[in-house]
Design goal:
Length: about 140
């Protein structure tokens, strides 16, 4: 298999996150000192720098903040997937997350669209909440 640019390399710290994702669970980091929840996972709280940070499972609910339909990306595997929808979503728990929107006609994308997480190949993506169609992609 050639290089892929959509899957981060898991180190000892982020392995927990990716193992949960493989089981269909989106993990966030919760600070025991200031109660801030953050994403992507860091070993310190980005707000108060506390090390008292633990994993917690997200509801998987989010709303669409902004997005861009990508028509060209020469890096594998994106090259074979264009056009796709790169997006920033607001997770129900608060953090913003860079992701991809699937199972949604581009003309139905709008700010505030209610989304739910769906895992494709162990990578969290989002689709309109209540989607009953089979998941496309991989
Ligand atoms: Zn904190």
């Amino acid at each position: 298999m050639g290089a892929r640019y959509d899957l981060p390399e898991a180190d000892a710290f982020t392995r927990t996150y990716w193992e949960a994702a493989a089981r269909g669970v989106l993990l966030l980091r919760h600070c025991g000192t200031c109660a801030q929840i953050h994403h992507y996972p860091r070993e310190f709280c980005p707000r108060c720098w506390s090390e008292d940070v633990s994993w917690s499972a997200a509801t998987g609910r989010a709303t669409l903040h902004t997005w861009s339909v990508v028509h060209r990306n020469d890096l594998p595997p994106f090259k074979d997937r264009t056009p796709y929808v790169a997006a920033v979503v607001d997770l129900a728990e608060g953090p913003r997350m860079m992701t991809e929107i699937v199972d949604c006609p581009h003309e139905e994308l709008r700010a505030g669209l209610e989304l739910e997480v769906v895992f494709l190949g162990g990578v969290p993506r989002f689709r309109p909440r209540g989607t009953t169609l089979a998941v496309g992609g991989e």
